[in-house]
Design a protein that fits this description.
Blueprint (H helix, E strand, L loop, with lengths): L7 H11 L2 H12 L3 H11 L2 E2 L2 E2 L5 H12 L3 H11 L5
Antiparallel strand pairs: 1-2
Helix pairs in contact: 2-5, 4-5
Length: 90
C-alpha cells in the first residue's frame, strides 16, 4: 500500500482495520517489554505529559518521533501509544 504524506490518515485507518487496537498494544509489549502505562510514565519523565495528560504545547509528532527513535516503533505502533495517552483504549 502506498502511504504518501497526503494519505497518511487514510492509510493508517485502513491498516488498523486489519489489526485490532489490542493487537497493536500486544505487539508493542512483545517488542519493547513495555505496557501503555509504562510508556505513559516515561512520557511524563520526558516532559510530554503532566498528571497523565498531554501538555498542550506538545505536538503528536514530538511524541511519535520519540517512540520511533527510542523504542524502534513504527508509525502505526507509535500512534497507538499516543492514542492511549489521549485516553483511547480501542
Amino acid at each position: 500500500m502506498n502511504c504518501g504524506s497526503n494519505l497518511f490518515r487514510l492509510c493508517w485507518n485502513q491498516s488498523t482495520l486489519n489489526m485490532s487496537f489490542q493487537a497493536y498494544i500486544d505487539n508493542i509489549k512483545a517488542k519493547t517489554g513495555k505496557s501503555p502505562a509504562d510508556f505513559k510514565k516515561l512520557a511524563e519523565e520526558k516532559g510530554f505529559l503532566k498528571d497523565g495528560q498531554i501538555i498542550k504545547s506538545v505536538k503528536a509528532t514530538e511524541i511519535t518521533n520519540w517512540l520511533k527513535e527510542e523504542f524502534g516503533l513504527g508509525y502505526g505502533h507509535a500512534m497507538a501509544i499516543y492514542a492511549t495517552f489521549k485516553g483511547n483504549k480501542k
